Amino acid sequence: MAENSNGKVYDFDKAIDRHNTNCLKYDFGRERKGREDLLPLWVADMDFRLPEEILGDLKARIDHGIFGYTDPKDSYFDSLNNWTEKHYGYSVDRKWVTVAPTVIFALANCVNAYTEAGDKILIQQPVYYPFGEVITDNGRVLVDSPLKIVNGHYEIDFSDLERKISDTELKLFILCNPHNPVGRVWTREELLQIAILCVKHDVILVSDEIHCDFIYPGYEFTSALSLGAAYRDHLLVLHSPTKTFNIAGLQIANAIIPDKKLRLKYQKANAANGYSQANIVGLKALESVYTKGERWHQEMLHYLKGNVDFVRDYIQKHLPKIRLIEPEGTYLLWIDFSGLELTDDELEDLIVDRAHLWLDPGAIFGPETAQFERFNIACPRKTLEKAFEQLKEAIDELEQENQEVVAQAI
Ligand SMILES: Cc1ncc(COP(=O)(O)O)c(C=O)c1O
After folding, report:
1. In this predicted structure, what is the pLDDT of residue 386?
2. Domain range summary for the chain, segments of one domain joined by +
3. 188-200 and 158-165 helices cross at what angle (nearest 10)?
């Protein structure tokens, strides 16, 4: 691997045109937003290309030319285990692992495995919106224990949480760690409090840890699986390399369930949903990224940290009325626009019609956050600069117009 003069091997500044590749992020503006002029910083999908050493493994698999049924072998479990031991400090016994096409498919299996129609399931909004959908679409009752914002920092309201968890109709808690969209990386102490409550009130904890490889300096990821054996009969982890290496299109995820009873229930729901063998290229991709992707991952994280720094500085210098919630992890920035004092519709107009940006509006993550926008910053810095320049121009133009209206009224 040849390093450049900055000691780096990979170039994340390189812009790659993703148009006309059936890419959800870039190619579906007309279908999803009714227009094609928006710069997309919405869906959690990165604009970075995999390194050649990993592409070589995938190409070799493709070149074989036969893509029949498959199942994971030792090399799959070994590469997964090496990654979890090195990065999160827990070992995975292969018996614990059930392969899934996606994390949200596995989550829906959990809903079906551990609850019945009419049971209550807890989430912490604002949160990744499919959590709510798998609950209500399966006829379960969504219970929200909203995160509260204290001095610009999101926290868990543990008294509200305990009150809701202690309801005997509540059977499942879906945790997002690191949390999308608020960017919290839950501490060991917070996770222990959650796990203790789940055991005490006999609630199953499903920890979605898909963003766990995006942790910024100064923060440490704790997996629910590393809390200790005492909690393992009440929890499981959903995990995947698809965010870390941007291979969501290859559809590979794992439900990691140490407890045998929980695992058998999960596997029954999985079979009931008709899933059995994994995607053959997805299995290869997991092995390859966990075996050869360490350096790329480290450099990508460093680059993302530079993107966070860019956004923070830009907001401080040019956009004093909007507020960045400082992320501890993930490449999704949660930004508060309430300082502009716009209505929710005016904010949407500002983002779409004036700034020509495609973001995820805060309203989709929960009932209280319509004045927030989620920005995906996993793109070359130039793309991010362009997006924030468009935003600044739009805000300047709007404020100018408002001043003219006020001047005319005087
Ligand atoms: C917290 C969280 N879970 C799951 C997913 C989706 O994962 P998958 O495509 O494997 O269902 C995302 C994607 O953004 C996410 O943010």
Report:
1. 98
2. 24-52+294-409, 67-292
3. 20
Query: How many Å lie between the centroid of ligand 1 and the Cα of residue 341?
Result: 32
Fold of 67-292: Aspartate Aminotransferase; domain 2 (3.40.640)
Short-list 79, 78, 80, 44, CA closest to 225: 80
Structure tokens belonging to residue 153? 């920092």
Strand partners for 374: 334, 360
Shared fold status for 24-52+294-409 and 67-292:
no
Q: pTM value?
A: 0.97
Q: What is the CATH number of domain 24-52+294-409?
A: 3.90.1150.10
Most informative mutation of 102, 206, 210, 333 for ligand 1 (most atoms within 8 A of CB): 210
Is residue 1 over pLDDT 80?
Answer: no
Instruction: Give residue ranges with CB within 6 A of ligand 1.
Output: 44, 102-104, 128, 176, 180, 208, 210, 240, 242, 248, 253
d(CA 104, ligand 1 centre) in Å: 6
> pLDDT per residue over 240-298, tens digit each?
999 999 999 999 999 999 999 999 999 999 999 999 999 999 999 999 999 999 999 99
Residue with tokens 């629910």: 224
